[in-house]
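Subject: DUF4192 domain-containing protein structure
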Amino acid sequence: MTNSLSIPAGGHTRGPRDPDTLLAAVPGLLGFVPERSIVLLVFRDDRAVAATMRHDLELTRAGLPTSGMKQLFERLGSLAATYDAVGTVAVIIDDRFPADDPRHAKTAAAVNRAFTQAGGLSAAFAMTEATVDARWHTVWRPTGKRTPPPPFVGDVLDTGALSDPNTSPTALERAVSSGRRILARRSEMETLLTAEPHCAEPGCTGASPQPYVHSPDAADARGLRLTLAVVDRFAVGDTELTCQELNDIAAALVSVHVRDALLGLSLTGIRPAVEDLWRMLTRRLRGPARAAAATLLGHLHYMAGEGAYAGVAFRVAHEADPDYNLANLLDTALINGMRPRDLGGLAELAYDVSRRLGAQLPPAVYEAAG
């Protein structure tokens, strides 16, 4: 997934040959500590990361990339080329083999071949875990007289101890911009969306409305106004919703017209309140309404370049309603590496639908990532 953070390739303690600052930034870029993963950092210049790509590292019994992984590398290499990449760094986090195991070099070599059209790899590193003081090793470098592509302009250290990812500049920047800490593992993202009771009212009767095909109507206009009013309440800290309010919002969200209009909130200045509301609704609603809330949340994360969070939200939407088309389409776009900015047509649709329903969305103040 894309982002635009600037990360120095070399650390400050041992000079530009030390990749520690870059390696410690990986959990902050992802939002969680990766395990048994390969992370590819695509640079568009010496400092700016144009894209961060993380995938589960699937290995054969011999410890080499499976044929499926090699095909994935090819697709990712083609994608990296579209970002005007000047160089890519591979980071392997895997506890199945020692960090200096020669099999990691073969994985890196496969990535380098696949990324030829994007400039190839600058270097590859491996560690058994991405936690403070974990030992990292440089497992691959360009061979021969080839000049390493950015972000490294020369040789790098062979090994080192990882500084604390939780206090890295990237983690701090993420905390300030999103208010989120680095999660210990990806599964914690799923926990954030675990279903909880509809409400605390005695005799609660949580509704699970079903969508139906219809043209935009007065009920859609009322539903959109209601949901926007709740967003405004969340923005000032009023986050308590009654059983009836939750049911009314559920009825609004199952309308594709209301949902499409609400997609436009992803890049507005009230994004934090919108995120909080979509997350609450994802946990409290059921069926198609839960799928709609999770899709809105996933779209919001997608636009911000938070691919891991987006993927989890889309999976929740699929589990709530396997036939929820927008979630499935967005998830496919995410898996195939479509840039958030290439989905700008959804924002235009959102503002158009909201106007037709008699509502005015706040102006967009953020740009889609990538």
